[in-house]
Amino acid sequence: MAEIRVTNVSLEFPLYSGGSRSIKKVLLRRSSGGKIARDAADRVVVRALDGLNLTLRHGDRVGLIGPNGAGKTTLLRLLAGVYEPHNGTVELDGRVSPLFDIMLGIDPEATGWENIYFRGLFLGLTPNEIRAKTPEIAEFSELGDYLHMPVRTYSAGMMIRLAFAASTAVRPDILLMDEWIGAGDAHFLRKAEDRLHSLVDAASIMVIATHAPDILRNLCNRLLLVDQGRVAMEGSVEDVLAAYAKYA
Amino acid sequence: MTDTSEAARAPAARDFAWRSWPRAIADLKDGLASRALWSSMGWQDIRQRYRRSMLGPFWLTLSMGLMVGGMGVIYAAIFNQPVERYMPHLTLGLLFWNYLTSLINESGTTFVMAEHVIKQIRIPYSVYLLRTIWRNTLILAHNFVVFVIVAVVFGVYPTWATLLFIPAFAVFVLTSFAVGLVFGMISARFRDIPQIIASLLQVVFFITPILWTPDTLQGRRAILIEWNPFWHFLEILRAPWLGHAPSALNWIVSLSLCGLSWLIMLVFFRRFRSRISFWL
């Protein structure tokens, strides 16, 4: 029974790169869904999340939509523990696993086997746990003897198969995704879809940021419209999609 | 849209969890416990550099060997020193100096280079630094072959004092960890710092007894050595291999600096740990 409670969280990214004054002027023209503001020390900051509140419970399949720069990715990273809020609190019960970039940590010079091991370490597995999961990952990737070869020799499709198989080997309580992952040729695509769906089904809470309405309808039972670092609207998939269509 | 109202400027009610001691300590503990992760990251760094090359990391050993061989003969003549005494001194000096400088320089880029990973998944920050230390320790181990050869050629054999290298190395690595963590954080925030430090270290190389021996500096100038913290660390690492114990002063200075660096690191790390991902 995982649970997520985000209470009044604001995240500000200070802009340090020189000439902040003039940069501010450029950025002031509102070009995105984020907020440019000044903090207490009069620094220019991008307020990516602005007093955001959110409670997610077991069984929630949440989709995040919103304009570019609205804070969707920042919110996902907040939930993944990448950013710790200085204002507000985030309480998480359950094992979180972000599935943002399946190619993370793939070393082209290393063999398939080595990459499976390495990816497992990134997922927080111990070497023994990885060894236990390796046969299943290898089988799912259908790479056979290619696993002994450096990944650099793989075709793009093979590389994705390996990365996908390895990064979906762990079933987290809280699954976070930035865009749905499509992988490989038609045959593997179906297999990957099944595996990803079973991952979603097994998760207690799933949060995905995407603009694809089909995926939202297919996966989610709840939609959040994020804008300017806040939850602008919350509701059923169709309601929020309809509102967003007008909104944008 | 600008928000410059009073409310936006006023410091908000703060939750101090982000700068709590337990989180900072947990990061250090979990980092150390993730040995499989940082050791394979460190190995991977080296292998990426040398994959498909015939000698692999031993290219480093070879270039170190050539450098020591060439410099040893010439500088022994310049400084009027017997080669059999000068060569081991120079070899160890260069080995440990290289280790020290690459640890410091690479600590500065530890977090910046790992930006992609840091923004994707939560791993203890100390893991990235341990990876840097591990990588450089492996390189040191490869380079150490040069000293073994020099030692055999010039008849420098281990004595009981050589055992002192073990605590010396521990003190050195502990200090490097603390200094590296602080330096890594500062460098993530101020990107000019690594360049400044790198050029300062070049100067330090010449004022530290590496190419020359301490006894060549007589009288009041000897102060330049005693006040050089790098020398004390170098000496506790080097002396045991040359068959004599480092001086009490060497130990006192090294241990004090180790303790001091940990104090500073803990304060810094508690305060700025959670800022690192914002700075990248």
UniProtKB/TrEMBL annotation, chain A:
One term of GO molecular function: ABC-type transporter activity
SUPFAM superfamilies hit by this protein: P-loop containing nucleoside triphosphate hydrolases
Domain of life where this protein originates: Bacteria
CDD domains: ABC_KpsT_Wzt (cd03220)
Entry-linked Gene3D superfamilies: P-loop containing nucleotide triphosphate hydrolases
Keywords assigned by UniProt, alphabetized: ATP-binding, Nucleotide-binding, Transport
PROSITE patterns per record: ABC_TRANSPORTER_2
InterPro entries in alphabetical order: AAA+_ATPase, ABC_transporter-like_ATP-bd, ABC_transpr_TagH-like, Bact_Polysacc_Export_ATP-bd, P-loop_NTPase
One GO cellular component, as annotated: membrane
One Pfam family matching this protein: ABC_tran
Domain ABC transporter: 28-248
Family: Belongs to the ABC transporter superfamily.
Designated name of the protein: ABC transporter ATP-binding protein
Lineage: Bacteria, Pseudomonadati, Pseudomonadota, Alphaproteobacteria, Rhodospirillales
UniProtKB/TrEMBL annotation, chain B:
Keyword field contains Cell membrane: yes
Pfam families in the cross-refs: ABC2_membrane
Entry's localization field: Cell membrane
Main location: membrane
A GO molecular function held by the record: ABC-type transporter activity
A biological process term (GO) from this entry: lipopolysaccharide transport
GO cellular component, one term: plasma membrane
Transmembrane segments: 57-79, 99-118, 138-157, 163-186, 193-212, 248-269
Membrane topology: Multi-pass membrane protein
Alphabetic keyword roster: Cell membrane, Membrane, Polysaccharide transport, Sugar transport, Transmembrane, Transmembrane helix, Transport
Keyword Transmembrane carried by entry: yes
Domain ABC-2 type transporter transmembrane as annotated: residue spans: 39-239
PANTHER family: CAPSULE POLYSACCHARIDE EXPORT INNER-MEMBRANE PROTEIN CTRC, INNER MEMBRANE TRANSPORT PERMEASE
Similarity field: Belongs to the ABC-2 integral membrane protein family.
Protein name: Sugar ABC transporter permease
Source species taxonomy: Bacteria, Pseudomonadati, Pseudomonadota, Alphaproteobacteria, Rhodospirillales
Name of the gene: rfbD_2
